[in-house]
Each structure stands twice: as C-alpha cells, then as structure tokens.
Write a structure and sequence with these properties.
Layout: E1 2-5, E2 31-36, E3 44-49, E4 54-60, E5 63-68, E6 73-78, E7 83-87, E8 92-96, E9 103-108, E10 117-118, H1 121-134
Antiparallel strand pairs: 1-7, 2-9, 3-8, 3-10, 4-7, 4-9, 5-6, 5-8
Bound molecules: dTDP-4-keto-6-deoxyglucose.
DTDP-4-keto-6-deoxyglucose binds next to β2, β3 and β4.
C-alpha cells in the first residue's frame, strides 16, 4: 500500500496539513470529492479505473480500504488527515467499516468519466491478465 504522510504543520493552536499537486500528491488534481454519511454496514467501491489515479484521505472518523491488484489484496485503515492512500489505475478497490462520522476526501487525477470505471470483477481480472500478458 502506498501511503503518503502529509507533514504536520500544526502548532499550539491545532493541526494543519497542506496538499499540493506534484508535491505531496503525485499528479495534477483535476477533481475533488467527498464521501460522508455512509450508512451502517454499507460498503462502497467494487470497481477499478482504467486511467484514474487518486489519493484518499480520511479527514474525520475512519474507514477501511481494500486494494486488489488481481493477485494480492491488501487493506488499510484510514483515520487521519495526515495520511493519504495512493490508489493507482487498474486496482480493484472496496471501502468498508465506515464510522458514522467518517469523511473521506478523495483527490483525483481526472474529471469524472463513467467510461473509465470497470465495475465487473471478472472484467477487471481479464484486463489485468491482458496487461500482464503484454508486459
Ligand atoms: C472511487 C471510490 C474511492 C459523479 O457523478 N461524479 C464523481 O466525481 C463521482 C466520484 C461519482 N459520481 C456519481 C457516479 C455514481 O452515480 O456518483 C454516484 C456514486 O458513485 P460511486 O457509486 O462510483 O461511488 P463509490 O463510493 O462506490 O466510488 C467512489 C468513486 O466513484 C470512485 O472513483 O475510486 O469512490
């Protein structure tokens, strides 16, 4: 899992982190969205992206993100505005265990495009096999 630790610029008044494209986020940030108020026992995600790169930051509460590259599944609990999880292209992602106060901020390298999503796990595995076959 590629975790990004944002420098804590806080002082005696409280915390502060700063996020800048191509500095502590490895792409141009074209879109920002927020997931919040997720109902109890609801999981989200269950897709991969063809081109999109993202960094997910839990700015309040906590949630678990599972990343699957087609061979290995790894999971991380996000619970701090000081930590970002980089999610590359062609990675299946699932989000679980949202606390009721969880606010997940996501920075994205592209504008929203439904055609960039692969929402079928078998299609995802096929794509991964093709990529591995080519390289
Ligand atoms: C991702 C994970 C981490 C838009 O119209 N614009 C947007 O920018 C986004 C993100 C979503 N939508 C629409 C598409 C769906 O009709 O909002 C609806 C909910 O999206 P979705 O079911 O894809 O939400 P999640 O939480 O399953 O996935 C989201 C992102 O879509 C996805 O890119 O990687 O968070």
């Amino acid at each position: 899992m590629e975790m990004i630790n944002f420098e804590d610029l806080g002082d005696s008044r409280g915390g502060l982190v700063s996020i800048e494209e191509h500095k502590n986020v490895p792409f141009e940030i074209k879109r920002v969205y927020c997931i919040y108020g997720v109902k109890k026992n609801v999981s989200r995600g269950f897709h991969s992206h063809k081109n999109l790169e993202q960094v997910a930051i839990c700015i309040n509460g906590s949630c678990t993100i599972v990343l699957d590259d087609g061979l290995i599944k790894r999971s991380a609990v996000l619970s701090s505005p000081k930590t970002g999880l980089y999610i590359g292209k062609n990675i299946w992602r699932e989000m679980h265990d949202f606390t009721s106060d969880c606010v997940l901020l996501v920075l994205a390298s592209e504008l929203y495009d439904e055609d960039d999503y692969i929402r079928s796990y078998s299609e995802f595995l096929k794509k991964i096999e093709n990529i591995r076959g080519v390289t």
